[in-house]
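Message: A physicist's question: would you kindly supply an amino acid chain plus fold tokens?
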Amino acid sequence: MPQETTLSLPAPAKLNRLLHIVGRRADGYHELQTLFQFLDHGDTLHLRRRSDDEIRLTPPLPGLAMDDNLIVRAARALQAAGSVRLGADIHLDKRLPIGGGLGGGSSNAATALLGLDRLWSLDLELDELADLGLALGADVPVFVRGHAAWGEGIGERLTPVELDTPWFVVVHPGVTVATPAVFGASQLTRDTPPITMARALQGGASGWRNDCEPTVKALYPAVADALNWLGERAPAMLTGTGACVFATLTSDVEAQRLLADMPERWMAFAARGLNRSPLHAALGR
């Protein structure tokens, strides 16, 4: 079978369907408990192998230096780990809002790691790729491993789970949330009692919440506005530290009906929840 030289791969969004803050570490990071789930909606990376060691990414993202882009950093980390003398041309079709709490940058990094592992014929284990990803960001490993998960620590200690797979309407209310401001806010809840994964799953989605939500609503009225509007129509929650919020629905028909009523000032999309990442489905892993 001839070696692949090009790949086009999805970089799916994620939702935090539960997010508890159970403590604060001495290094300033917060201890979390969360449920990650993928969506059948996201960015796409187009990868082409180069015979030299150049990593070229197009287009540049506004306000982000190329060397700071997680895709470039992931590619260079993989080059170093595999002693690779090959490179790649990478084109990003960006659909997810930057800084929306959907994990777009982390998902891009994971897709770069798994895609380039294939193009460069490295065949690294997922554990190795997840370790590389963790050095880039706490959310990268869940995208590398490719399964809905219960996350603990700073979100990097992962246990695969099977969640319900409803339809969601995801809304970006047009503001950028500064994550450090949320985690540094005095009013943020940091002492939610830890629970077991079994208890979280047994309780079901009706009891799930995001501890960041009250703080983000107070700091960003636009997020509160979107949550209030969605919450009048379906169960609604913040994902991550936002700015995106989502409503949980039972069918695509319901989701499309809600989208049709959406105020024009917001960007929104409908998507299905998934337990297996579309990236892993595409790669056959």
Remarks:
- The first strand starts at residue 6 and ends at 24.
- The beta strands are 6-24, 30-50, 55-58, 87-93, 149-153, 157-160, 167-172, 236-238, 245-249, 267-274.
